[in-house]
């Protein structure tokens, strides 16, 4: 996992799932279900292009801040229940930095902004699932390297004896 940057090593060709702060929670839930994602970014279009991050809305927010307290999803705006000014990382941050931050604060999703600032221009979102894939690939590479060292370069665990 060393030296793997969030963009382009972890996040590639990502289609952002975003809504403005005035969108309803119901709109967010429908979009999240349609796109099969557990979080979306709450953004505002910038006059000169790009999107400014305002917050993040996750399944946890939906459960704890809407359903559990009996709010009407159709009448509740994202601005009322999103996590405003979330922690972010910049695109040059390494995967281990994201993993460390997510572990420390118990996040499953972390926005990536151009400058790493919470109100910066949105570039993507990294999930714990994305980072799991990076860790898994790294461990598989480590195992292959060790097998080659121990048994010789022609050895493969999948090859018949």
TrEMBL record:
It comes from the Bacteria. Pfam families: CBS. Residues 10-73, 82-142 form the CBS domain. The keyword Disulfide bond does not apply. InterPro entries: CBS_dom, CBS_dom_sf, Diverse_CBS-Domain. Keywords: CBS domain. This is Cyclic nucleotide-binding/CBS domain-containing protein.
């Amino acid at each position: 996992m060393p030296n793997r940057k969030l963009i382009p090593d972890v996040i590639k060709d990502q289609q952002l799932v975003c809504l403005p702060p005035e969108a309803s929670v119901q709109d967010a839930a429908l979009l999240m279900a349609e796109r099969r994602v557990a979080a979306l970014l709450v953004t505002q279009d910038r006059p000169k292009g790009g999107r400014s991050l305002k917050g993040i809305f996750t399944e946890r927010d939906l459960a704890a801040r809407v359903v559990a307290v009996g709010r009407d999803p159709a009448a509740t705006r994202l601005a009322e229940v999103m996590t405003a000014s979330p922690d972010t990382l910049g695109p040059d941050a390494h995967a281990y930095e994201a993993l460390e931050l997510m572990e420390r604060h118990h996040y499953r999703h972390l926005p990536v902004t151009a400058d790493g600032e919470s109100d910066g221009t949105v570039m993507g979102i990294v999930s714990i699932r994305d980072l799991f894939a990076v860790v898994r690939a790294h461990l598989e590479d480590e195992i292959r390297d060790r097998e080659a060292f121990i048994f010789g370069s022609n050895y493969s665990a999948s090859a018949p004896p």
